[in-house]
């Protein structure tokens, strides 16, 4: 469990034994049930989360009550409402567990303290946020320039383990299409094989 | 010119006089003409750019030759093809000057060297990339959940100085709508005033 996080961090930076102890002493191990929320729209997102196992969805409910899925997160991914977390203002998004989910919780205070005690964590977070930004920008372009079928194929490639784990209507919401249209795409793909 | 950059950086971190000298010695001041490219799709994006004056568009040309505008950047903004820059692989996007543009160029080698010489720049870039990620995620949600008219109003608010500076068809491309539909939205807005 600790090793899962440390192995992940060591892909980007090296921590001494002492730094590892400091880091692990400042974060909390938590288990959430399926359906529980890490963050609710309107609350302040007080933590960033490193997922050890399970899956979450980040979504936004618009004025008409319609749910829009921004992202899914699975084991070895980070999740948070970044806008809310960095400015400690009310969250735009909900993050809900789609499965029983085990994670490490990095509170705002812990992260700020860790940046001071272990300055190279700045480098670590800088690098993972850069990657998240690249993924986010690619998604904007895909939504403009690719057909729903092409976006579905990229989704399958980006989240190879997830499709069996989550309901179809959520995948449709993530792709910005109806559930019926997603079924149509899938049967077209089967026929063309 | 140097002060414009240093004032911007000092909003996030403090640099000593010596650090300011190191920083300024590693970056290049450049002027580009209207129409020139900072990065071309398929080339490696070798630098990150801090814009002192002028404006750029970041765009993607799809297989059908259609142009999709990902973002505009103006004075005191950063621009680069982040995915290409961090991995030094071919760029997905073009960045072209919409006006004569003056900027500071941070080459990949300079940035890597600066992170070693001035480690607190990790914090600076971590913070500005966090903000860019928040903006990018908000744009994804807006594209799903808001009407073109609402997205146009947010565009006007986000880029208050830019609308008079760039052609309408580019704003339409950024919003993912046709130029004709943008005209319709604008005349509806005028009538409803």
CA distance, first residue to last residue of chain A: 41 Å
Shape of chain A: globular
Give Rg of chain A in angstroms: 18 Å
Total strands of chain A: 8
The amount of helix of chain A comes to 40-55%
Largest sheet of chain A: 4 strands, antiparallel
Q: What is the average per-residue confidence, as pLDDT of chain A, rounded to a whole number?
A: 93
Structural class from helices and strands of chain A? alpha+beta
Strands ordered across the widest β-sheet of chain A: 1-8-3-6
| pLDDT < 50 runs, ≥5 residues of chain A | none
H/E element sequence of chain A: HHEEEEEEHEEHHHHH
Number of helices, where a helix is a run of at least 4 consecutive DSSP H or I residues of chain A: 8
Oligomer: homodimer
Tell me the β content of chain A: 15-25%
Greatest interface (CB-CB under 8 A), with counts per chain: A-B, 34 and 34 residues
Can you offer a commentary on this structure?
The structure is a homodimer of 193-residue chains. Chain A has 193 residues and is α+β, with helices and mostly antiparallel strands. The first copy, chain A, is 48% helix and 22% strand. Chain A has 8 helices and 8 strands; from the N terminus they run ααββββββαββααααα. Chain A has helices at 2-10, 17-26, 82-87, 108-117, 121-145, 148-158, 168-175, 179-191, and strands at 28-32, 37-39, 47-53, 55-61, 67-74, 78-79, 94-97, 101-107. The first copy, chain A, has a 4-stranded antiparallel β-sheet. The first copy, chain A, has a 4-stranded antiparallel β-sheet with strand order 2-7-4-5. In chain A, helix 2 (17-26) runs antiparallel to helix 4 (108-117) and helix 7 (168-175) packs across helix 8. The longest helix of chain A has 25 residues, at 121-145. Chain A is globular, with a radius of gyration of 18 Å. The termini of chain A are far apart. In chain A, 33% of the residues are buried. The interface between A and B is medium-sized, with 34 and 34 residues.
């Amino acid at each position: 469990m600790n090793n899962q996080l440390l192995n992940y961090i060591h892909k980007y930076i090296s921590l001494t034994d002492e730094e590892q102890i400091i880091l692990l002493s400042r974060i909390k191990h938590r288990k959430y049930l399926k359906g529980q929320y890490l963050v609710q729209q309107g609350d302040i997102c007080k933590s960033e989360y490193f997922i050890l196992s399970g899956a979450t969805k980040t979504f936004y409910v618009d004025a008409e009550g319609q749910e829009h899925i921004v992202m899914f997160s699975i084991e070895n991914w980070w999740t948070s409402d970044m806008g809310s977390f960095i400015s400690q203002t009310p969250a735009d998004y909900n993050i809900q567990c789609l499965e029983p989910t085990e994670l490490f919780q990095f509170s705002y205070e812990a992260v700020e303290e860790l940046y001071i005690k272990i300055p190279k964590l700045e480098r670590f977070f800088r690098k993972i946020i850069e990657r998240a930004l690249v993924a986010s920008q690619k998604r904007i372009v895909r939504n403009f320039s690719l057909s729903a079928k092409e976006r579905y194929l990229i989704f399958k490639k980006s989240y190879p383990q997830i499709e069996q784990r989550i309901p179809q209507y959520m995948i449709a919401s993530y792709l910005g299409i109806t559930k019926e249209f997603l079924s149509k795409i899938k049967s077209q793909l089967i026929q063309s094989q």
